[in-house]
Amino acid sequence: MVYVRDLSGDEIGAQVQRTYDWFRGMFHHTPDANIVLDRDGHLMEINPAGERILGFSRDDLMRGGYEQRVHESQLPLAQGVFRRLLEGEVQRFELSLTDSAGEVRDLDMLALPMIEGDEVAGVFVQARDVTERNATERRLQESEQRYRALFEDNVDSVVSFDTEGGYEYLNPATEALTGYSERELRELTYVPLLVPDQRDFVLAEFTRALEGETRQYETAMYNRAGEVVDLHITLIPIIIDGETRGIHCVGKDITQQKRLERELSIMAYTDSLTGLGNRNAAAEDIAHRVADGRPFAVIAMDLDRLKSVNDTWGRDTGDMLLTSIAQRLAHRLSDRATVYRYAGDGFILTLDSGDPHVATAVAEDLRELVRAPLMLGGHEVTISATLGISTYPDDGCDAETQMRNAETALYGAKRRGLNQVALYRSIATPDDDRRVHIELELRRALQRDELSVVYQPQVSLPTGELHGAEALMRWNSATLGAVSPDTFIPVAEDTGLIGEMGRWVIETACRQLAEWTRRGWELTVSVNISMSQFGDDGFVGHLERTLATTGIDPHLLVLEITESIASRVDIAVARLHQLRELGVQIAIDDFGTGYSSLQYLRDFPLDYLKIDRGFVSQSTHHARDRDLVATIAQLARNFGLRTVAEGVESQAEVDLLTDLGADLAQGYHFSRPLDPESFEAWVEAHLAAFPQA
């Protein structure tokens, strides 16, 4: 029997009140949003959590229906859900609302129809803010997609190894690279695939990665077909909770790159005609021998009159001659020396013995070997050779000196006549030693930034105004001190260094001119161009790039060229017109001291004639020099050119040159050559004295 106690009216009322209070407490104090809407979708009640989540107060939410808070993209969803609720269906869904700050909030909602009698009177909604959860899930999904893209779609091999080197995961590129399937690789470690001589090295790298280091290196492995595959490897430790759990490995196939490098190396160290090592290979051999420290000899050999063979029977015959001589040398010296071709008609030989008597005997043997007749293309050809010998360590303690001294000995032998042999010690003079030392230091000067440019002002004689400056190269050697241009410029020209030095001077002068132009100074800068620079096929292209890079007005750059260009008028005219098309001006330096000709004044596109300082210095003392300066000035005017007098050292010379019609002057009377900072100070002072219009 069930006992039921009857409740009085007061007790029932109290029970109802308690139930209402419990419900109200649950409604208001739950951390989720509790919302009550009427049938029209207007707010009837909301708890504090709902106000906090939505970012609106109850009073704000009372104005308008739920549709005003729903994000526009999800309004159709909300309307459909609300319609089904009014039909009496319970709904569970996610919805995005816009809070008071305009931010979108994702809500996980449980909505219940509130039924009075047989009708839905309203809707009760419980909503949980899942914005951060959804954002985290999206980030995880994106991370997963990126991770899978890194692995699955990577063109490089990507592998995850366990700590024992076993394959835990690998991408399709790994299967393509190795030729093995994923199933086959999972039964292996990476070690059996490695080229044997790489295994110890790679195991050491793997161990260091397990210790927490990211490692990069190159190695090689065998693929399934037994082919060697060159790889660039990156190992990345997989560290979880401070413990290395495995290794990520990215392997890039560099087989083609390595093959190309080997081919380029062969090209860089091999003479394409004879198959012998070239000058680079010879230099490396000599450097290794110096490092080894044992005595050896270097023999420089030139074939005499190879040009005559080329001119008489053609270059093909000359090439056949070089190839045959190379084969003879390599065969005869295979057990005693190494042969290199280092120039058009020249060979370098490194001899295992440093005894000068042995080296001389070998050289004499080579001389006779070369003289033996050759049948080439139906012609019997006989040629001779001249040789120079340098021994280590007596004739130099570094590779560069050894090669240079062997060449010096060769040139000394040529001074005695062709078909000669000479030891460096037998022909070396103090001047030769100094010249070699200057060349060696000059090569280092380019690396040590020991070169600088100074500027000597050029002044208008009629007005005294500043016209421009001549850029002059200077060398302050760490070992030789200040070296005169008259000393190092000829060495630079003889050794081919003048090309690199000349390009550097042009770039430096143009950058400086650009800076002065930005200051508002309109002045020209003159740069001396050597004959070898002028004849270099790359000269005009380099100048054009420099003008474009620095942005200077080309008309402000004056190139000073010597009269010796007139020895090849056809080439000179074409090159000068190329320069004129770039917009630069041209000056003939030291006019009257070289190959002067009215023809090139007519044919060459010139702007200035520079009067040699020798004429200037004598003009105040000798009538013939004075008349010569006047003639040059008049000649220049007749051809529409301007004259620049060099080496002006006195006011008397200034007055005379002005009277004789010279246009511009430079020299110690105005200023010595100045470094850029001092030149700028000189210009400021000069502009104050001679303000330009």
Structure description:
- The protein is of the alpha+beta class and 693 residues long.
- It starts with 8 loop residues before the first helix and ends with a helix.
- The mean pLDDT is 85.
- It has 26 helices and 26 strands.
Class based on secondary structure composition and strand pairing: alpha+beta
Beta-strand percentage range? 15-25%
Average predicted local confidence, pLDDT: 85
* Poorly predicted regions: none
Helices, by number, come to 26
The dominant shape is flat
What is the CA–CA distance across the termini? 128 Å
The largest sheet is: 8 strands, mixed, barrel
Radius of gyration equals 45 Å
Strand ordering within the main sheet: 18-19-21-22-23-24-25-26
By DSSP, the count of extended strands is: 26
Helix % is: 40-55%
List the topology elements.
Blueprint: H1 9-29, E1 33-38, E2 43-46, H2 48-54, H3 58-62, H4 75-86, E3 91-98, E4 104-116, E5 119-129, H5 131-152, E6 157-161, E7 167-170, H6 172-178, H7 182-186, H8 199-210, E8 215-222, E9 228-240, E10 243-253, H9 255-269, H10 279-292, E11 296-303, H11 306-313, H12 315-332, E12 337-341, E13 346-351, H13 356-371, E14 374-376, E15 379-381, E16 385-392, H14 399-416, E17 421-423, H15 424-427, H16 430-448, E18 451-460, E19 466-477, E20 481-483, H17 485-495, H18 497-518, E21 524-529, H19 531-535, H20 539-550, E22 557-562, H21 569-582, E23 585-591, H22 598-603, E24 608-611, H23 613-619, H24 623-638, E25 642-645, H25 651-660, E26 664-665, H26 676-689
Parallel strand pairs: 16-17, 19-21, 21-22, 22-23, 23-24, 24-25, 25-26
Antiparallel strand pairs: 1-2, 1-5, 3-4, 4-5, 6-7, 6-10, 8-9, 9-10, 11-13, 11-16, 12-13, 14-15, 18-19, 18-26, 19-20
